[in-house]
Design a protein that fits this description.
The complex is a heterodimer of chains A (350) and B (219). Chain A has one domain. Chain A is 76% helix and 2% strand. In chain A, strand 1 and strand 2 form a beta hairpin. In chain A, helix 2 crosses helix 7. The two termini of chain A are 23 Å apart. The model of chain A has no long low-confidence stretch (mean pLDDT 87). Chain B has 219 residues and is mainly α. Helices cover 86% and strands 0% of the residues of chain B. The N and C termini of chain B lie far apart (42 Å). The model of chain B has no long low-confidence stretch (mean pLDDT 92). Classes of the chains: A mainly alpha (350), B mainly alpha (219). Chains A and B meet through helix 7 of A and helix 1 and helix 4 of B.
C-alpha cells in the first residue's frame, strides 16, 4: 500500500471530519450549551461510541450503498467522496438542510453514469424511502417519548433536583446510543465508496479482531472523532445559544428519537429479528441525522399547538432531497471527466 | 445488607433535604409567631414572650444558614442550570417571608404597644389568617419541587387568605381610627397592622412568581 492511497482516501476522511464537526454537535449541542455536560466528557463519549458503531454495525448501510454502485477504483472513490463533501459544504453555506447521505448517493449515481454502469433502481427507491420516512418517523417517536416520560415524571413525583440528575444521566446514555447509531448509519457515507478498492487486510490486536472493511471504518471513525475534538465545540456553542430555550428534557427526547431512527435504519440484528417475527423491517440505508433532529423538533412543536414553527424549514428539507443528490451527481460526473482526461487517473474499471 | 452511596445522588438528596427544611422553617415560624402574638396580647412584653421572640430569631437565623447553603450547593453541584435562577429567587423570597415574621415579632418586643382588649379578637383573627397564608405558601413551594398540579391548589388558598387578611386589616383600621384613642396610639397600631398584613402580601408575591415558574417549566 503506497501513500497515494491515503491521498485518495483524504476526501473520505474530510467528509468524516465534517460529519464529526456538524452531526455530533446536533446530538450533544443542547446538553453542552445548557451546561448539563462538559464538552470534554461529551467529546470522549461521542468519539468512543461513534467508532464502536462504525466498526461493528456499519456493514449494513455500506452494503446498501455498494449495491447502488460498486465504485471500483480508488480515484473514482476519491472523486465521489470529494464531490459529496463540496456539495455538503456549499449547501450548508446557503442555509439549505443537507446531508452527507444524500450527497454520497448523488455521487455514486454520477459515477455509475460516467462509468456506464446501471443504477439499481430498487435500491435507490429504498434509499429515497428512507430519506422521506426519516423525519416523519422521528417526529412520531419524539411525540410518543414525550408523552411517556412526561406521564412517568408526573406519576412518580420525583423531586426537581433528582429529575435533573436522571436527565443528566439520560442525556449521556441517549447521546452515547445516538453517536453509536450515527456511526453505524453514516460510516457508509464516509467510507462506503472506498470498500471495493480498499487495500487493507484484517488485523488482530490481542483479543480485538478487525476485518479489512472494519479497518477502513476504524480510520473513518478516527476522522469523525478528529472532527468532534477540533471543530464541534464551536458548532455546539452556536447550537447551545440558538436552542438554549429548548429545555434539557426536550433535548433528551429529541436525541433519543434521533438515536432510535438511526438505529432502525442501520441495525442488522434488529432487521433479522423483525424478519423472524414476520414483521416489516426498515431498509438499511444511510439517512440524514440533521433531518431526524428537525423531524423530532417539528413533532414536538406540532404537539404543543404548532405555534412558532418555521414552516419554511420543511420546504428546505424537501428541496434538499432533490438538490443535494442532483448537484453532487453533476459535480461528480464533471470532475470524473477531468480526473480521467486531465490527470490521467483510472476512475473506473469497465 | 449493602448500602452503597452514590456521591452524585447523595449530594442531591442532601440538597433536597435542605430545601424541605427551609419549607419546614416557614411552617415552624408561623406557628411560633401565632403563639407568641397570643401571649403578647395576654402578657405584653413578658419573659415568656421574650423566650418565644428568641425562638423566632433562632428559626430566622437557621433559615438564613439554609438559604446560603442551598444557593452555594446549587452552583457547586451545577444543578438545574436552565432554571437555577428561578429557584434561587424563590429561595430568597421564602426567606423574606421568614424575615418579616421575625421583624414583626421583634418590633412588638421593642415598642411593646398597648393593644386595647376590644381589638384582641380581630387581631388574633388577622394573625391566624396571615400565618395560614404563609403555611400554604410553604405547601405550594414544596409542591413546586415535586408535583406541579398541587401548586395551583395551594396558591388559590394563599390568594384567598391574603384577601381575607386585607379585609380584616381594613376593618380593624377603621375601628381604630373611629375610636377615642390618641392619634399617636392610633398610628402606632396602624403601623403594626400593616406590618402583620405585609407577611401575607409577601406570600402572595411569592405565589405569583411560583405560578409563572410552573408555566415556564411546563413548556
Amino acid at each position: 500500500m503506497d501513500l497515494t492511497y491515503f491521498f485518495f482516501l483524504s476526501s473520505g476522511l474530510f467528509l468524516g471530519w465534517s460529519l464529526g464537526a456538524n452531526d455530533v454537535s446536533n446530538i450533544f449541542g443542547a446538553a453542552v450549551g445548557s451546561k448539563m455536560l462538559k464538552f470534554k466528557t461529551a467529546a470522549l463519549i461521542a468519539s468512543f461510541f461513534i467508532i464502536i458503531g462504525a466498526v461493528y454495525s456499519g456493514a449494513g448501510t455500506t452494503q446498501t450503498l455498494s449495491s447502488l454502485g460498486e465504485v471500483n477504483t480508488i480515484a473514482g472513490s476519491f472523486m465521489v467522496a470529494l464531490s459529496a463533501a463540496i456539495t455538503v459544504y456549499f449547501m450548508a453555506k446557503t442555509g439549505l438542510t443537507t446531508s452527507t447521505s444524500q450527497a454520497i448517493v448523488g455521487g455514486i449515481i454520477g459515477w455509475n453514469l460516467y462509468a456506464g454502469k446501471s443504477t439499481n433502481l430498487a435500491v435507490l427507491l429504498q434509499i429515497v424511502f428512507g430519506w422521506v420516512v426519516c423525519p416523519f418517523l422521528s417526529a412520531a417517536i419524539a411525540v410518543l417519548l414525550y408523552f411517556f416520560f412526561k406521564r412517568l415524571i408526573n406519576k412518580l413525583h420525583i423531586h426537581v433536583l433528582m429529575q435533573h440528575q436522571f436527565l443528566r444521566i439520560g442525556l449521556v446514555l441517549s447521546g452515547a446510543f445516538c453517536t453509536y447509531a450515527l456511526g453505524a448509519n453514516n460510516i457508509a457515507n464516509v467510507m462506503g465508496v472506498f470498500v471495493d478498492s480498499s487495500p487493507f487486510k484484517e488485523v488482530e490486536f490481542g483479543f480485538l479482531h478487525l476485518n479489512a472493511e472494519q479497518v477502513l471504518f476504524f480510520l473513518g471513525g478516527l476522522a469523525i472523532s478528529a472532527g468532534i475534538f477540533t471543530y464541534s465545540h464551536k458548532v455546539m456553542a452556536t447550537i447551545g445559544k440558538n436552542i438554549i430555550k429548548m429545555s434539557p428534557f426536550i433535548a433528551f427526547i429529541i436525541i433519543s428519537s434521533q438515536a432510535l431512527v438511526l438505529f432502525l435504519f442501520s441495525s442488522e440484528s434488529l432487521r433479522q429479528t423483525l424478519h423472524a417475527l414476520c414483521l416489516p423491517a426498515f431498509p438499511l440505508v444511510p439517512v440524514s441525522s440533521t433531518q431526524a433532529v428537525i423531524g423530532a423538533i417539528l413533532g414536538i412543536g406540532l404537539m404543543k399547538g404548532g405555534r412558532g414553527i418555521n414552516w419554511s424549514i420543511t420546504g428546505k428539507i424537501v428541496l434538499g432531497w432533490f438538490t443535494t443528490p442532483l448537484l453532487t451527481l453533476f459535480l461528480c460526473f464533471t470532475c470524473l471527466f477531468f480526473l480521467e482526461n486531465v490527470f490521467r487517473q483510472i476512475v473506473f474499471i469497465p | 445488607m449493602f448500602h452503597v452511596k452514590i456521591p452524585l445522588f447523595a449530594n442531591t438528596k442532601k440538597l433536597e433535604h435542605k430545601i424541605d427544611e427551609l419549607h419546614d422553617k416557614i411552617i415552624e415560624i408561623s406557628m411560633v409567631f401565632k403563639k407568641a402574638f397570643h401571649l403578647f396580647l395576654q402578657e405584653k412584653r413578658s419573659a415568656n414572650y421574650r423566650k418565644l421572640s428568641k425562638e423566632i430569631k433562632t428559626i430566622e437565623h437557621d433559615a438564613d444558614v439554609l438559604r446560603r447553603s442551598i444557593e452555594s450547593s446549587l452552583y457547586l453541584q451545577n444543578l438545574i442550570p436552565d432554571f437555577r435562577g428561578d429557584v434561587l429567587e424563590l429561595v430568597e423570597n421564602l426567606d423574606k417571608v421568614i424575615n418579616e415574621f421575625d421583624e414583626v415579632a421583634h418590633q412588638f418586643y421593642i415598642e411593646n404597644p398597648d393593644v386595647p382588649k376590644v381589638y384582641h379578637e380581630k387581631m388574633e383573627e388577622l394573625v391566624s389568617e396571615v400565618c395560614e397564608c404563609a403555611e400554604n405558601l410553604a405547601f405550594a413551594s414544596r409542591a413546586f419541587f415535586r408535583d406541579f398540579s398541587a401548586v395551583r391548589d395551594y396558591s388559590k388558598k394563599v390568594y384567598f387568605l391574603e384577601h381575607e387578611s386585607d379585609k380584616t386589616t381594613a376593618k380593624l383600621k377603621e375601628e381604630i381610627f373611629s375610636s377615642d384613642l390618641e392619634l399617636a396610639h392610633k398610628l402606632q397600631l396602624k403601623t403594626f397592622l400593616s406590618e402583620v398584613a405585609d407577611i401575607a402580601d409577601l406570600a402572595e408575591d411569592c405565589v405569583d412568581q411560583l405560578l409563572i415558574y410552573v408555566i415556564k417549566r411546563d413548556i
